[in-house]
Amino acid sequence: MSYVITQNCCNDATCVAVCPVDCIHPTPAEREYRTSEMLHIDPGACIDCGACADVCPVDAIASADALRPEQQRYRDLNAEYFDRHPRKASPGAHVQPLPLSIATATDGAPAPLRVAVVGSGPAAFYAAEELLARRDIAAEVTMLERLPVAGGLVRFGVAPDHWRTKTVDRVFARTARRDGFTMHLGVEVGRDVAVAELLEYHHAVLHASGAAGDRRLDIPGEDLPGSHSAREFVAWYNGHPDHAARTFDLSARRAVVIGTGNVALDIARILVTGTERLGGTDIADHALATLAESAVEAVVVLGRRGPEHAACTTPELLALGSLPGVDVLVDCPVAAGPDAPMKLRVLAEYARRRPTPGNKRIVLRFGVTPVEVEGGARATALTVRGTGTGASESIRCGLVIRAAGYRGLPITGLPFDEQTATVANVAGRVIDPDSGEPVPGQYVSGWIKRGATGVIGTNRYCAAETVAALVADHRRGRLRTPSAAAADFAALIRRRCPDVSSGADWRAIDRYERQRGQESGRPRVKIVDPAVAALVAATERDRG
Length: 544
Description:
alpha/beta, single chain
């Protein structure tokens, strides 16, 4: 019996590296990897050794005979990938993905390569791991994060009911314990320390700060109360300190989500999922209390184009269908033959469903373009126009969530491409667009490098590419030698940020949150107030 990759696949390809028979694809060396929704196991080649399941950081791999009922379709999804992408070579040869460490001995003991990593999400931690795991150089990594806790997108972006996906933070925790790793939490680059100053203490700066802005719709009424960006809403229910005090009016029976990507589906799912179910997740307590009083019974999810262009992944779409007490419907016929992609077949199945009296609803509508958010003091409706027909319609609603995508923000002193909302770069090297020359010592990884695309694991190989460029520049003597010692940088940070927290403080907060979660049957109970986080860390330090 073969193994099967299921919904919470993070795409970081750890499983590819251990498979002895090359049955997991696409590998990072294959073109399809960059756009693949998930990885797949070839049922005809799998030898049932279980090595992939043992190393999967998010527990996404299960034996086919142990699949839960809602996971059964992943058996077909895995097999279909190989029907559409037949293997040209016979199984048996192990294919190693992009190297995360290079086994090359060094002569002598040169001074370590010192790199400042800005950010603490997946792109930042994968970059740190790539540097510290190398055996051809000695490296030291200083990670700087403006918040009192690390995790970035994993902590503040992944939906609370996708708790298995969040377990990838175990990988980051291991990196944080490596020799040569130092973390400063509560330090904002650009406010507390300038980028130029970082280069006085480090050979290079690697920016992995993500995308903290929103793509706008540029329609009338977009900024009315009751009309919010998906980024704000997601940060609120995930307990981001910057958004914990936000309020969202959920008193209307209908909400509209603009967009059909995974974030749009996450929001729709959270709005109609019962608080009994959400109460077993790490959703922020303030969000759980608000959702308990919610009057929302229906969420309309809008897409500009047809069902075949739905931006969500197939696993996320499948996950909608198993929500208790919730009907998932499509408001138009969907043509999907037996050879159509599974995503389209799932949409066709939802289109054939009929509503169940008393159930809440998620209604997927395609082929409509938002024209205006209506309302006076607040949003009361959304005007849409048929993308192909031009016919207008007003959808009454009390909440509009714009899930048009995240957008990177400029970093002071670095060239920024407004069109792509990324720092100008080639393979992670920051490039001066006027001269085409690299900006000495400056590198990027993650969304600020490639745009807000991909899943968590995509950042692993994005970071590997950037680190390869950085190390190559170091070997060629293109990086300036720091003029000050690493210990001096730590002293500088303590002077400027007396309340700075360390990696040990982060681990103390993590233990505290998990302990509180264990007491209430949840993965963790999040601290959302930085002052409380500081108090918990200080208490643990005193105990130590």
